[in-house]
Structure prediction request, 222 residues.
Amino acid sequence: MKILVVEDDQQVARQIETSLKNAGYVVEVVHDGEEGLYLGSHESFDAVILDLGLPKLDGIKVLQQWRNENRDMPVLILTARDTWREKVVGLRAGADDYLAKPFEIEEVLARVEALIRRATGHSKPVLTCGPVEFDTTTNRVSLNGTTIEMTALELGMLSYLMHHKGEVISKTELTEHIYDQDFDRDSNVIEVLVNRLRNKLGSRLIKTHRGLGYQLIEPDDS
Ligand code: CA
Prediction:
């Protein structure tokens, strides 16, 4: 899962970036509205954390522009003060949630998890696929109730596939959501990861659609 953070306060940005990365997200951070607007318009993100008071272009304008372009990723806005006006303007500009500064970082993480769940059509924090369970709040993975150890990349891929269960996901899309920008897209690392997940969680969990991508399926749906 890939998150865009648009925040000009370097300290706040770093704190959010560190916590998100520790929680297993791929994170891109920019410090002004213009850069934020560009990235959010041209790259694919699973959620955005957007400060409203930004240099060059304010957060509300960034958000309005994304929504005008039909960019529909969930957006959590950060408001400087706990004023109701800013929240109302932000929500009406297309924000999905807000948080007033100062905030506890755990709350940021919990809200991002919830936003991604809702945006992908899930209401429960534990996602299941047959015998496999993935807890979005702890990143715990289990197979028939037994915890399975995962590397960060395996977790990243499983999280994306679990959130998008049943959809055929292209290699490009997977790459975009589990690696950061400078990743070499020609390598076969996605296939390697898919095979590692199959080895750990069962060969029938992920179906290959030649030339199209991969699909996480319930064991009975194959
Ligand atoms: Ca600011």
Q: What stands out?
A: The CA atoms of residues 141 and 147 lie 6 Å apart. The chain has eight helices and twelve strands.
